[in-house]
Amino acid sequence: MKNEEFVKNCEKKLSNLVTEEKLIFTFLRIERNFYASKKYSLLDQIKEIFIYVYPELIFEIKSKNDMFVFLKKYGIDKKKALKDYKYVGTCFGVKLSEFMGRYILLLINSLSNRCMIKSEFRNKFKIMFNKINLLLKSFFSKSIEIVGLKVFKLILLKVKNFKKLSRLSSSKIQMLGAEKALFRHIKMSYPVPKHGFIYFTIEDNINNCNKISNYEGKLAKKLANSFSITFRCEYFNSPMRKFDID
Amino acid sequence: MKKIKCNNFKNSKGYKVSKNFKNFKKDDLNAFFNSNELFIRKGKNIYTKNMFKSVKVYGERLFYFKGFEFREWNPYKSKLCASIVKSDFIDFDLLSNSNILYLGASCGTTVSHISDLNYKKIFSVEISYEMGIQLVGLSRTRKNIFPIIEDARNVLNIKKLIGSNRIGLVILDIPGKFQVDLINDIAIHILKKHTIIYFSIKLSSINSSKSLREILNIELVKLKEIFDIKNIISLEPFEKNHYMLILRKK
Hints:
The structure holds two protein chains of two kinds. Chain A is mostly helical. Helix content of chain A is 67%, strand content 2%. Chain A has a two-stranded antiparallel sheet with strand order 1-2. The radius of gyration of chain A is 21 Å and the shape is globular. The two termini of chain A are 37 Å apart. The mean pLDDT of chain A is 77. By secondary structure, chain B is an alpha/beta fold. Chain B contains eight helices and 13 strands. In chain B, the strands form three sheets. Chain B has a seven-stranded mixed sheet with strand order 9-8-7-10-11-13-12, sandwiched between helices. Chain B is globular and about 50 Å long. The N and C termini of chain B lie far apart (48 Å). Mean pLDDT of chain B is 81; it is low at 1-37. At the A-B interface, helix 1 and helix 12 of A face helix 4 and strand 9 of B.
């Protein structure tokens, strides 16, 4: 009995599981680490993108030099890619849309320049982050108006799935950043938490917080209620719903 | 007392190796050599012989001894390693000479160390796609590992894939409320008599409001119907609220 049959079965399953939605969430995660105070190496973050495009050869990359050599061997021709950007596939045969496929190819081809300065290297990622912000604003414009882009991304990174967010109740969305306080309330009978990530919308958008400190809980409740309804309307009308079978 | 000398102080690429193996005495070593010198234990650190030279799986350190290359196994990262460091109850003959079912093999960090030791098959189960891609990549080079991307609760699907291979050891590392129910289902459908299970239980995921002793006692009562409990090992300071249970099916 050989393990090659198992490997083939796994590849078939993975081709059904890898989607564009996952790519968006990886870039959101990279963006969060990009601007965080802790040091995350860009090489490790680029590897996460490679997992989708060239997963077979990820174990051959041990250093930066290997990455550049690898890109020249297996990289795609720029001219062909820009002409045929409507269809772009991964090693597992997953089709990417026009938007994601084009910009990912440009990113990968731009990373093959070894002589690039560090600032240029980082600017390429910033272009990608701005494009994803535009994509989110095009699909979920009204829900971002309610809560703000910053909080919308925090909520998405916590839930990691559009389908799950559409199924969540508004009370859970209200509490999404405050799990520690919630379990403290359950165990040791501390007071109930009122808000999680939604607190940042109240803080950013309202100037006089002294008078509103009595109404924070009610504001958070109303924000969460309105956000949950608008997100569901926009999600079921967006093209992200094609992966939702239930 | 003879001093064992290590000639290779540098890697093949010219990087310096640490001086842990430079001059050490046999009495200081809790050495545990198999016939093929696969495994070394020195105090708190454990090392396994590398199947492929100068290849790292997850960025671990490499050491040289008697002309062989060894990989460091971190007890803070894997629970099996923590249980080995804390106690002597784990059977290395089983690890090396039996088919293993590993539930919860995320990226393949502990699975890679077990594949260095094992001569037979390791059926590694993982549910997520991100970890599954790395697992599949590992299994292309290491022919011991048989990856299965499936929910561990679908026991019948796993049984079909395993087929007629007899399993001598089960290692379970999945946190959640359904841990005990999962093992009971596996024991009923897949396992035969007197198979041994290394079950790392996470008590805070079962119930967060009660104390640890209450939860442990409740779960042990559920397990005693099907299993004989041989040992209970606490994994502190490496893991909080974790225990390693060594079970045997009746």
